[in-house]
Amino acid sequence: QVQLVESGGGLVQAGGSLRLSCAASGRTFGSYGMGWFRQAPGKEREFVSGISWFAGRTFYRDSVKGRFTISRDNAKNTLYLQMNSLTPEDMAIYYCAAARTGAANIPTAERQYDYWGQGTQVTVSS
Description:
By secondary structure, the chain is mostly beta strands.
């Protein structure tokens, strides 16, 4: 069992930055693939970025490449998402998720993730 708690969301002006954190419980955080998803009002939840548990491979959706950086600190059981150059299109509730998956895998579908946090709101003003 893994419990996930996101933090770091808030209100930022367009062009600004935020750093999201996801604190995980349990001793096996380091063996889970991790991902960030987001859901904007009236839209389906979508994959944003993921990181494998082995070798820290990363993957991003096209719209955030070059602006967002995912990372993890297994010693602190924490996942991060550094978000720069934010636009109103990035405004959403952001969720972290954990997947029991292969060492170098980065799942991108919701159904591939086993545990979810409660989400943190990111608001970007234009």
